[in-house]
């Protein structure tokens, strides 16, 4: 009867702890600091740990500027992003796709419900497809970005193209520019490439593959999951665009031309789920825009993707729950499909647990940082950003105390690994031989 | 398939709109103003409407001081509180208790699930019992309060005793003292009486009656509902007491003796669910205490009571959902009782809809008041206070613009009537003759 942490998830935990440990040790070396070997700067271990965790979890929150790292240090961060991203996407895709028993560390019983539309795969082939797809998309993105960075007069445009393409597709949001992409807010080409990379990274491998097979006519229809993810993604982007365009046209976007206003409102709608680049300073947003950004950071993108958050499918189920009634079997009919009571329950529990974790995180940070006058909305913004592996910031993160940094490190880890583990936690059905009387409680 | 607003609820809406309309017109009359007939003050109609809504919904938020009203005006407010409170408690208790078909305006099909442990009642008897119980408890409270107010040197102690007893039992939180009960923070007798009135008002009629029957040995056991409500109430009070004692001992309670520190931490734990008196200024609370107060305001008290919020039973179910797995039938076993999938679904949907309403309210107020620099936590505090019919304030309410006051009036009404209507909305089960394929979406 008790919830159990799935043993499979421990592999993910072990992978991430290893990556973070090795990464943080590499990052604290003088070799990783700017100015090495002559006059190397120095960062504390807590900052190295923070940056390594942020990179592996593809969060993108930073306590120190990227310019404080040498090329070696920046490459370490890029590798951590790539490995953390591939780790998550492979692990979740495998668990989502496989019909059972193929990966030795997994239990058969946990898989059936993740079986999608009769597709069966070989794990090795899945992973190699994921790696090839990821590197392929990143390579195209890097080439395009390098070209437009060159046009924009960026030195080292090749390196900057690669770094930002990986950071964008992995939804990491790390930028070599100290003001993120604010310098390119009037460069629609670069914004478009980055947005396309973010969105494709956020759809998830299953959807990408499904779309690919549909385009190459190997399949006649997109599966239900893909349609939900694509529909929710399009709807959220459009809705967010309208919201930010409306709320910011007289604020942060007031100096922009109509074209740039559209591009930046679109970017602000895309980036919280869950890339974390910014083209306009987040602290300057109006209050309703900040609240909407927090909501979007919480929602996140598609499951089996590199992006974080509680996922668009969870929100889809939550919305369905609110507007439809279940049939006697507890299932809900939507269009020509049934959402089973099992799925409904999992989504609800996942949502509630995520909210509880978030609340605990915000309370912990409030306890540590609140007494020195940090506003609670700034705390919630940073906590949701860390939890959803977003990386947007109102500016609080670099000012955190060591204890505060520890809390955010914990939240980034919980938001990345905890949510994945949670989403795959097994619901064990048990038959009772005794029927207990109904415990009637009134809800009024 | 579509959710429907139960027609019964329209009776409640009509009752409340009538009370609010008549009340606001009476309150705006010169007769209701202090200084009448010589030099009567003047309040705007929006303030009269605000005060009438706040009284009928037993919220307790105020835009003008009680001292701006004459004895007549104050009596109007007291009557509105009493009638609004009795209206809610009668309506919800009737719907919760009755096995069906007894009240002409109700549909039989909606009743079965509110049938508690085989108890059947005559509606007229229920209402008269509710009125007698309410007036009886309030009378005892008024006598005790009058005595201790006299001891404390309050003029008009009889009138003050009656007003505060009604306001406390109805969980209204209106006070004739402009600083609420802050002047009595070192008077444990008065705090104890007020707390007992608040708690008994918040348990709900069903629990009060059950406890009474248990004490008079008419029943051998308390029913499951009563045990859950009493257990949750005791647990929440104790937990909140520890939290506030811990968070405030070096803050707002630092000047108090240990006895007064205990009494005021206890009071701060009791008052947000959902009375709204305060003994310490809420704006002076530490940030974690404010967050906890918001949480407690959201939770509220027992169903079928005068108190607001999403109710302790809903939170009970939400907690159960998070820590237990459902069996194949979708029910969850807890102790020797089953919580049915029907109850689980209702609690979840209720919780989600309440959160959505709250979010909408906060966004609306943020849109109106945010641009002039009001912090978002202050907005959330006021919105949750209005929504949960609590009445605690960080001081924002009196400063609201007319549009902001309209929003809070709407939220008070939605939190009072909307939540009741929501909680009694009917889940219509329908048999499908076609079985649709499962719409499998992945949640990871
Ligand atoms: K990110
Ligand atoms: K109240």
From TrEMBL, chains A, B:
The keyword Ion transport is annotated on this UniProt entry: yes
Keywords of this entry: Cell membrane, Hydrolase, Ion transport, Membrane, Transmembrane, Transmembrane helix, Transport
Highest taxon listed in the record's lineage: Bacteria
Membrane topology: Multi-pass membrane protein
EC class of the enzyme, as a word: hydrolase
EC numbers, comma separated: 3.6.3.14
GO biological process: metal ion transport
GO molecular function: hydrolase activity; monoatomic cation transmembrane transporter activity
Parts of the chain that traverse the membrane: 12-31, 43-64, 76-98, 126-150, 157-177, 189-208, 228-247, 294-323, 344-368, 374-394, 406-427
Major location (coarse): membrane
Claim: Plastid is one of the keywords in the record: no
Location within or outside the cell: Cell membrane
GO cellular component, one term: plasma membrane
Protein name per the record: H(+)-transporting two-sector ATPase
């Amino acid at each position: 009867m008790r919830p159990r942490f799935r043993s499979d998830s421990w592999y993910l935990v072990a992978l991430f702890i290893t990556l973070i440990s090795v990464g943080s040790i590499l990052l604290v070396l003088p070799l990783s600091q700017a100015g090495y070997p002559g006059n190397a700067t120095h960062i504390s271990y807590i900052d190295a740990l923070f940056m390594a965790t942020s990179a592996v979890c593809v969060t993108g929150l930073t306590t120190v500027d990227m310019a404080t790292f040498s090329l070696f240090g920046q490459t370490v961060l890029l590798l951590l992003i790539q490995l953390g991203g591939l780790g998550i996407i492979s692990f979740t895709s495998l668990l989502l796709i496989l019909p059972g028993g193929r990966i030795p560390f997994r239990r058969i019983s946990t898989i059936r419900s993740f079986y999608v539309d009769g597709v069966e795969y070989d794990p090795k082939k899945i992973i190699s497809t994921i790696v090839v797809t990821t590197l392929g998309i990143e390579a195209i993105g890097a080439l395009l970005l390098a070209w437009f960075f060159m046009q924009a007069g960026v030195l080292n445009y090749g390196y900057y193209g690669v770094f930002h393409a990986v950071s964008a597709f992995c939804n990491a949001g790390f930028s070599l520019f100290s003001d993120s992409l604010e310098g390119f807010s009037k460069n629609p080409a670069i914004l478009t490439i980055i947005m396309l990379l973010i969105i494709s990274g956020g759809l998830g491998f299953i959807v990408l593959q499904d779309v690919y097979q549909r385009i190459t006519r190997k399949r006649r229809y997109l599966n239900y999951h893909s349609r939900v993810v694509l529909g929710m993604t399009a709807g959220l982007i459009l809705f967010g665009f309208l919201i930010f365009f409306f709320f910011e046209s007289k604020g942060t976007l007031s100096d922009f031309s109509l074209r740039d206003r559209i591009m930046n409102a679109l970017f602000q709608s895309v980036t919280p789920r869950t890339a974390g680049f910014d083209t306009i300073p987040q602290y300057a947003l109006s209050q309703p825009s900040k609240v909407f950004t927090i909501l979007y950071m919480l929602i996140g993108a598609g499951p089996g993707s590199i992006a974080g958050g509680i996922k668009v499918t969870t929100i889809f189920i939550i919305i369905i729950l609110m507007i439809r009634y279940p049939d006697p079997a507890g299932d809900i009919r939507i269009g020509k499909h049934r959402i089973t009571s099992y799925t409904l329950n999992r989504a609800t529990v996942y949502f509630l647990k995520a909210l509880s974790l978030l609340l605990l995180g915000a309370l912990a940070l409030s306890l540590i940082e609140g007494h020195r006058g940090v506003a609670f909305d700034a705390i919630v913004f940073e906590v949701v950003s860390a939890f959803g592996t977003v990386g947007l910031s109102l500016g609080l993160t670099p000012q955190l105390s060591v204890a505060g940094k520890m809390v955010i490190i914990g939240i980034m880890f919980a938001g990345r690994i905890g949510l994945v583990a949670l989403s795959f936690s097994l619901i064990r059905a048990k038959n009772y031989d005794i029927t207990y009387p109904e415990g009637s409680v009134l809800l009024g």
